[in-house]
Design brief:
It comes from Streptomyces odorifer. With 503 residues, the protein is of the alpha/beta class. The chain contains 18 helices and 13 strands. Helix 9 packs parallel to helix 18.
Length: 503
């Protein structure tokens, strides 16, 4: 009896723990660890486990547990702010992996065939991409931790982002993970899988090489980033930024960028501050892009507003942050979930979102599209700015709440992805680091400012024009994944109906 117990299937508790652990294995691919090389392998243990699930119900349970592990591992830095609510959110979002796990079991279980070499990687990757799409909705936390974003510093990734965005890179990474499982478990499908993988790699390489590239401007623009560092108090922060900006005088800057919430007062109600900013513009010879986080006269509530300030004061259109951080800047269904403010640092008052994007133009003709913090996680926003004629994307951010976590480095890495997708340089300016600047191909355009710095840094960038394939065609990789799942589901349904008829 002891021998039978030892040779039988693993107990349920063991599989549950294995699923929870396997779901968290992709987390190190993101900064701060930044193990980008782990991304093509990180899902293999989870896929192997789901493949051997004894029933579809068991696969769904292990998919949910793995999804819970993934969300906790990737968002662990939220714990100091949301406390137990982080676990609640992870458990709810983890449910998205339950149907995916059942799909994995169907496609990977049993003896392999040459047909599986094509259908399994495509099906598993398409299902994963749909999960990324669903959880990318702003109300569910936004597109943080998309697998494709892990390749922000890798040449092949930077060449594929302009073709199909972060979605295409996610799709290919999951397909590679799945193909490795097929090769390891299905000898009859091994060579077909390798052949299919080689064909896809050759096609992707050819398309990336032939894809249109952004056209850089003839003359570089000199952009300055001001990072004041950790300072308590809006007045003290303003003073520090003013001193750092004054040090840029005579250095030829055309635009000086301050971070999110860099001005904690309404400039209309504080003409003295507006005057100091205008004086800074005259002294440095550059316009200042600041971000006002305050109540504005004549408007209810608080907005986070990007304001361009010139030698005579604020000029041009303003931009109000459109996509707010759930719980950080507003509480979804506050009447139902307002209790989150009592167990963590959730927003005590909802910020007011803006309604439209804008492109700001400096006196020197530089056209910049502003984004604010969380918005750099959304591929569609930078794509729209590129289509609207922005030659440069400016992201104003603050991750000071998560200063000693993975969040600052991971947030800065998203700027590289957005730059490569849109074919536009991206300036990521923060209050407390990490600030970073990337050229139109997504490569660093100068040293970054870490979380230990209080400094002003000057960068040379070439604004760009033209449209990448992603700017032209958008989220086509997502549409292809959904279409594959619909067609495959239709084929299975037809076969089942015919089988019943024959029976």
């Amino acid at each position: 009896m002891v021998q039978r117990a030892m040779s039988g299937p693993p107990p349920s508790w063991w599989r549950a723990l294995a699923a929870l652990f396997a779901g968290g294995l992709p987390a190190p691919v993101f900064p701060a660890p930044g193990w980008w090389w782990w991304a093509p392998f990180c899902l293999v243990p989870w896929l192997l486990l789901l493949r051997t699930a004894p029933t579809a119900r068991r696969a769904a349970l292990e998919g949910w547990l793995g999804g819970l592990g993934f969300m906790l591992a990737v968002h662990h830095w939220l714990m100091p702010s949301l406390h137990v609510f982080t676990l609640v959110l992870a458990a709810l979002l983890g449910l998205a992996w339950a149907p995916w796990a059942m799909l994995v079991r169907v496609l990977l279980a049993g003896p392999g065939t040459a047909w599986r070499a094509v259908t399994a990687p495509a099906g598993v990757a398409s299902g994963w991409l749909v999960i990324e799409l669903v959880r990318s909705w702003q109300g569910l936390g936004g597109p943080w931790g998309l697998l494709g974003a892990s390749q922000w510093q890798v040449g092949p990734g930077l060449r594929l982002f302009p073709v199909g965005g972060v979605w295409l890179v996610s799709l290919l990474l999951v397909a590679v993970n799945t193909a490795l499982v097929v090769v390891a478990t299905s000898p009859r499908a091994r060579w077909a899988t390798l052949a299919a993988g080689a064909a896809v790699a050759a096609l992707a390489t050819g398309v990336a090489a032939a894809a249109p590239r952004p056209v850089p401007a003839d003359r570089p623009a000199r952009i300055a980033v001001v990072q004041p560092g950790v300072i308590s108090g809006a007045a003290q922060r303003f003073d520090r930024q003013e001193r750092l900006t004054a040090g840029l005088a005579g250095r030829g800057a055309e635009l000086v960028v301050w971070g999110e919430s860099s001005v904690g007062f309404d400039l209309a109600a504080r003409p003295d501050l507006a005057g100091r900013l205008a004086a800074l513009s005259r002294r440095t010879g550059a316009e200042l892009l600041v971000n006002v986080d305050a109540r504005r006269q004549g408007r209810p509530g608080i907005s986070k507003t990007s304001v361009l300030v010139g030698a005579s004061g604020p000029v041009g259109p303003r931009y109000d942050k459109m996509r707010l951080v759930p719980f950080g800047e507003y509480v979804p269904a506050r009447s139902l979930l307002g209790w989150a403010t009592s167990v963590g640092r959730a927003a005590g008052e909802d910020r007011h979102p803006g309604t439209r994007q804008v492109v700001m133009e400096t006196s020197g003709g530089l056209r910049a599209g502003p984004l604010v913090c969380f918005e750099t996680a959304f591929p569609d926003l930078s794509r729209r700015l590129a289509r609207a004629g922005a030659g440069l994307i400016v992201a104003q951010s603050s991750t000071s709440t998560f200063q000693q976590s993975w969040a600052p480095a991971q947030h800065a890495s998203l700027a590289a992805v957005r730059a490569a997708e849109s074919g536009r340089p991206v300036v990521h300016a923060t209050l407390t680091g990490v600030s970073a600047v990337f050229d139109a191909s997504g490569r660093p355009a100068g040293p970054r400012l870490g979380t230990d710095r209080s400094a002003a840094a000057l960068y040379e960038l070439r604004p760009a024009a033209g449209a990448t394939l992603y700017v032209r065609f958008g989220d086509w990789a997502v549409y292809a994944a959904v279409a594959w799942l619909v067609v495959a589901g239709g084929v299975v349904a037809v076969r089942r109906v015919r089988g019943r008829g024959d029976g």
